């Protein structure tokens, strides 16, 4: 199935340009289709495609259709730059949804999108480094910074009565950002970190790092890394070596691939933090019903809400701007995402298009909540606490 989805993605990469007609408008979709978070991607592609389909089914974008042009970062900084260059210089997109990983988002922004004057909105990138980027108001995200997630994770751990832990985090923008924030917050609240290891990606064995981490005598290991790369290997090798059996992870580890690799039983005492959506949000139900009607299942997968919302916002920004002028995208994005304005939700493209045509303001409230960008393109948000439930994850608490 995963191979099939990768082939579909590749076909989209190769064939999407040919589908564009003279009056159609391209929108860039930059995703980490291959690489360490590949297992997350199929439902997120569906989320982006659903937003585009709804737009085209309800009057189209500007005077034609919306056409999603995909780029694959391959989960690497160089791959992100290469894909971004194609979107900017070959496809000439006016705005980009993505990327997903913090490192690929930052690499694409700094090397390509900021110099090209292209607005970029990530649904999932959380690195604190994005807050202070010199981005000319071009880089946005709709999930809270890891400065917040790290503090919440420290609270989760202490609330569980865990007063000492060992910590390992991957040496990239994502891991370093949230790792340092977690450790500072945990120590400040009275927790003890008995061992700390910053590890590298793409190694076959982490047994030497685990030996160091186990010497401190902690019962819980905090792992801040991706399940499709170092994070999954560290958990599996910890269990195989009898070194740790209780794990605490962040959104990169909250991946169904981890459950497939080590089994639900091995994770029954573990828990995970991840950006989430408001409880009892009617906009979320609207999206999930439409998503499952279109694809059969998958609306509950991680970051479906945020990916759909980010894609819908890029399309609203183009419609608000009234053209594909890159220079108009930032102001238009801020306008459609924040109050004042008449409320618009997931799937309500015809309503939004009519209001904008009448010169009225709109305010998009999505499946993932409302998005009021601050001066840095950041938003406040929610962090959920998740535990393993069968072959997936169940949310058991929300921190605001």
UniProtKB/TrEMBL annotation:
Residues in Leucine-binding protein domain copies: 26-337
Family annotation (InterPro entries): BCAA_transport (IPR051010), Leu-bd (IPR028081), Peripla_BP_I (IPR028082)
Keywords associated with the record: Amino-acid transport, Signal, Transport
Tree of life domain: Bacteria
CDD domains: PBP1_ABC_ligand_binding-like (cd06346)
Keyword Ion transport part of the UniProt annotation: no
PANTHER family with a match to the protein in the record: LEUCINE-SPECIFIC-BINDING PROTEIN, PERIPLASMIC BINDING PROTEIN OF ABC TRANSPORTER FOR NATURAL AMINO ACIDS
Similarity annotation: Belongs to the leucine-binding protein family.
Protein name per the record: ABC transporter substrate-binding protein
Species, as recorded: Hoeflea poritis
Lineage: Bacteria, Pseudomonadati, Pseudomonadota, Alphaproteobacteria, Hyphomicrobiales
